[in-house]
Here is the input.
Amino acid sequence: MTTTENGYEAQRKAAAINLILGQIGLSDGKATEWWNYQSYPELGGRTPTQAWLDGDEEAVRSLVDEWYADSQAAVDQYRSDPAFMEMLRRKVKP
Here is the structure.
């Protein structure tokens, strides 16, 4: 595989992570902030961009996967709470 092909693959993976970040609820601006301005112990104190550029794509993906799983668990918990669901129904009805 050539360097260019590797670059395309890295871009594809980064785009997939951005999609997951959107599903978690980060807007484009917040996703940019996440990539560039927040460091994480799981990434050795680096930002996701720093870890990605260091070739540590798997660690970045693991961090996002864990965050996604935690978000999904919270959704599932609220979904099974009848009082919370009723409160949401009242708020969305005109």
In short: Residues 3-92 form one domain.
